[in-house]
Design goal:
Layout (H helix, E strand, L loop, with lengths): L2 H32 L2 H27 L13 H28 L10 H28 L2 H29 L6 H28 L8 H10 L6 E10 L2 E10 L5 H18 L3 E10 L27
Parallel strand pairs: 2-3
Antiparallel strand pairs: 1-2
Membrane topology: Multi-pass membrane protein
Organism: Photobacterium jeanii
Protein name: Metal transporter
Length: 316
C-alpha cells in the first residue's frame, strides 16, 4: 500500500478522535449537571470511539505493510483483528451501559434532565452524522474495512444520542414519566450492540476462511466468457485478508497451445481481473488443457470426444 492511503486513514482517524474527545467531555459534563443518565452513557460511548480510533492508528501501521518472508500474503489480517477489537470493545461498552441502566431503574430519579441536555444531544447527533458521512467517503476511496467500521461507530454514536434527546423532551413535557431516561439509556445499549455485531460478524467470518464474495465467481466466469482464448475456468476460490481478496482458480486452454502462449493468456487474464476488481490484490492461476479429463463446466461423454476434448459425432 502506498503512503497516500495510510495518510488518509490517519487523517480521518485523527479528525474523529478530536471530535470524540470534545463530545465526550461535553456530554458527560452536561449529563452530570442536568442529571441525565442517558447523556452520561452517551458520553462514555464517545470515549469508546476514542479507544477504537487509537486501535486504528496503531493497527494501520501493520496492515498497510507490504508482504514479506514472514507474511507472504501480506498483513491484511491485522486489519481484521483491529475490527474484532473495535467490535468487542463496542459490545462491552454497550453491555456496561445497559447494566447500569437496569440497576438504576429501581431508584427514584430526583431530577428531570434540563434542556441543556437536549442541546448537547442534538449537537452530538449533528457532529457525529457529519463525521459518519465524511469517514465513509474516505473509507470508500481506499476500500478500508477498518475505516468503514469506524464510520459506523460514528453513526452508532449519532443514533444513540437520538433517544437521549427524545427522553429529555418527554421528561420536560411530562415530568411524571419516571425512568424514561433509563429506558433511553437501554435503547442506546441496543443500538451499540447492533453496531458491534455488524462489525464483529464479517471479521469473524473472515477468520474462518469463508468465501470472500458470493458474486465474485460469476464475475470471473463472465470475464472468461469474453476471452476467446479461454475455454473454461473452474475451482474458483477466494478468501479475504483485511480489505483485500486473494483469488485462485483453474484456467483451461487449447491442449495444442504452447506453454508460453498459455502463460501469456493467463497473465493477461490476471491483469484484467486486478484492473476490474479493486479488492482483488493477488490471483493464482493453474493452467490446464481443455480435455475431457480436465473439463468441469462442460463435461464430455465417454467415447464422444477426441483427444483435444472436442465433442465428436457418435455416428462416426
Amino acid at each position: 500500500m502506498s503512503d497516500q492511503p495510510v495518510k488518509l486513514i490517519q487523517k480521518a482517524t485523527w479528525v474523529g478522535s478530536i471530535a470524540n474527545v470534545a463530545l465526550a467531555i461535553v456530554k458527560i459534563t452536561v449529563g452530570k449537571i442536568t442529571g441525565s443518565q442517558a447523556l452520561v452513557a452517551d458520553g462514555v460511548h464517545s470515549f469508546s470511539d476514542l479507544v477504537t480510533d487509537t486501535a486504528i492508528l496503531i493497527g494501520s501501521r501493520y496492515w498497510t505493510a507490504p508482504a514479506d518472508k514472514g507474511h507472504p500474503y501480506g498483513h491484511g489480517r491485522f486489519e481484521t483483528l483491529t475490527n474484532i477489537f473495535i467490535g468487542v470493545l463496542l459490545a462491552a461498552v454497550g453491555l456496561g451501559i445497559g447494566w447500569d441502566s437496569i440497576s438504576s431503574i429501581g431508584h427514584e430519579q430526583t431530577t428531570t434532565p434540563g434542556m441543556l441536555a437536549f442541546v448537547a444531544a442534538v449537537a452530538s447527533i449533528l457532529v457525529k452524522e457529519v463525521l459518519y458521512r465524511w469517514t465513509l467517503i474516505q473509507a470508500k476511496k481506499i476500500n478500508s474495512r477498518a475505516l468503514y467500521a469506524n464510520a459506523w461507530h460514528h453513526r452508532s454514536d449519532a443514533l444513540s444520542s437520538l433517544p437521549v434527546a427524545i427522553a429529555v423532551i418527554a421528561n420536560w413535557v411530562v415530568p411524571d414519566l419516571h425512568y424514561l431516561d433509563q429506558v433511553a439509556a437501554l435503547l442506546v445499549t441496543a443500538m451499540i450492540l447492533k453496531a458491534a455485531f455488524e462489525i464483529l460478524w464479517p471479521a469473524i467470518w473472515e477468520l474462518t476462511e469463508a468465501e470472500a464474495d458470493t458474486e465474485l465467481e460469476s464475475q470471473i466466469q463472465q470475464y472468461a466468457d469474453e476471452d476467446p482464448d479461454i475455454r473454461e475456468v473452474h475451482a474458483i476460490r477466494s478468501r479475504r485478508t483485511g480489505s483485500s481478496i486473494l483469488l485462485d482458480f483453474h484456467l483451461l486452454v487449447d491442449p495444442e497451445m504452447s506453454v508460453d502462449r498459455a502463460h501469456t493468456i493467463a497473465e493477461n487474464f490476471k491483469s484484467h481481473i486486478l484492473k476490474q476488481i479493486e479488492e482483488v490484490v493477488d490471483v493464482i492461476i493453474h493452467i490446464e488443457p481443455y480435455t475431457c479429463a480436465e473439463r468441469v463446466m462442460n463435461p464430455c461423454c465417454e467415447g464422444t470426444c477426441d483427444d483435444s476434448g472436442e465433442q465428436g459425432n457418435k455416428s462416426e
